[in-house]
Structures are given as structure tokens and as C-alpha cells.
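Bench notes, afternoon.
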Amino acid sequence: MHMGKLAAASAVAFFWVAAPALAQDADVMQYADTNSDGKVTPEEYTAFLGTAWNYFTQSAEKVKVAGLDPMAKGLVSGVTPDADGMVTKEALLAAAPAKFKAADKNGDGALDATELNASMQGN
């Protein structure tokens, strides 16, 4: 695996495990905010969701929501499963704009650390 992808996957794993205990929301920002400007754009958010999907599903094309780890369920929150209870990576990425809009609580067109963390926990 390419070192950048490995680092990103490790960061996503760290986030989901540590998120409830984090005292500061900035930790995940260093991975999602690729240009380090303190904001996550819709493009950065979509890329981050794709990386998280690859980590939690081991790059599967689709997964059964009921079988996901509880911490990974936040990733697919807001994505409607098919009749078999499956969600695809394609559906997740297609839902990224709506997930981003729902997460952007202050409506400024970017996510701060608090908004980003909440979006990853299904809030």
C-alpha cells in the first residue's frame, strides 16, 4: 500500500476509535483538511469519506449496514440502503454532498472540526 494511503487509513482508524474520547476536535482535521487551512471543503470531505470507506470495508464495493462496526455506521449515516440492506461506495460518494450540507451547521460552505467530527459520528 502506498505510504500516503496507509497513513490516511491509519488516521481514519485512529479517529473512529478515539473520537469519543478526544478532548480537542482538531486531530481528525489534520487528515481531512488536506490543505491545512482549518476548513474542510466539500471536495476534501468526499475524499475523506472515500478513504474511510476503503478502511472500514477493506475496499469492498458494498457492505451490509447491519454488519458494520458501530463506529463505522456513522460513515454511512444518511445513505439509504438498498432492499437487501446494502450500501455501496458509489452510493456513499453520491450522498457526500447531502451529508456535507447536513454537517455544515453554520452554513458557511466548509466544515470546522466540530462539524466534521459530528458528521463522522452520524450526528
